[in-house]
């Protein structure tokens, strides 16, 4: 954690990521992605099943119960970012520890 | 390109969970031998950045969007072992927290993006780097090509899974043509984002770029050898 405050490069990288996930994400295209579009055009989209957790609080990058779209998407991005940060640092730092 | 549950049948999906688990296990060992106290935070940062960038779908053609896969970006920044883990962490969190990509499809997605995406990108990057003149400018160019080609390769990897265990009966060749052409377009976006990000890191802290480090070290050895003679 400390190094992300001391090291300008790491701090800058994190700030850019926060800006992208928390703010820019609202402006993302809502068109289907390549795979979804191909599935739709070629006629196999209907074989997709909802994920078992499709009703979860953060499903589809929004926070359930927050109606403001900008806030909902941005907040879900920030939550995901914190989760990614904690878990990846835990894993990579554990691996880096020399016995 | 996150596969939802249902596109590929359960036996195939489970088989790919097994294959991907083996691949990620090997990557854990590889990353363990490579990571240091200095590079571990960087691997964390790359993972966070890829998660954030994957939220940004950009339009590519009529009614179609794409987003960064990140395999080339991660492999060039932090090396292919850590990159495999990085993309896997992102995919697992996306499936668990955001229902983005199916839960039973996790093995299919890890196979296409963390294993095929990362290692195909890295191989292409090394080949293109060898062909181009060995200077700093060649790195973003090689990154662009590796990132671009990675996307139709990952799309083809999906078609391979579709050929093994599709639930639908649409012919494989039809799916392949559509997947390949759409993902070449998305690959251009992937290439641009990857090359821009690598350029930005090279401009600020080129010592942190895994795909450049080996080369700069070689140049140092050469120049010191010259000064000795």
What average pLDDT do the residues of chain B reach? 93
| β-strand amount of chain A | under 5%
Main sheet makeup of chain B: 2 strands, antiparallel
Beginning-to-end CA distance, first to last residue of chain A = 21 Å
CATH class of chain B: Mainly Alpha
Identify low-pLDDT runs of chain A. none
Count the beta strands of chain A. Answer: 0
Low-confidence stretches of chain B: 216-220
**Helix/strand order of chain A, N-terminal first:** HHHH
Structural class of chain B comes to: mainly alpha
**Coarse shape of chain A:** extended
Tell me the CATH topology of chain B.
Arp2/3 complex 21 kDa subunit ARPC3
Which helices and strands, and how do they pair?
The complex is a heterodimer of chains A (99) and B (229).
Chain A: H1 3-6, H2 8-22, H3 34-42, H4 69-96
Helix pairs in contact in A: 2-4
Chain B: H1 10-34, H2 39-54, E1 58-61, E2 64-66, H3 71-78, H4 80-98, H5 106-131, H6 138-165, H7 172-205, H8 210-228
Antiparallel strand pairs in B: 1-2
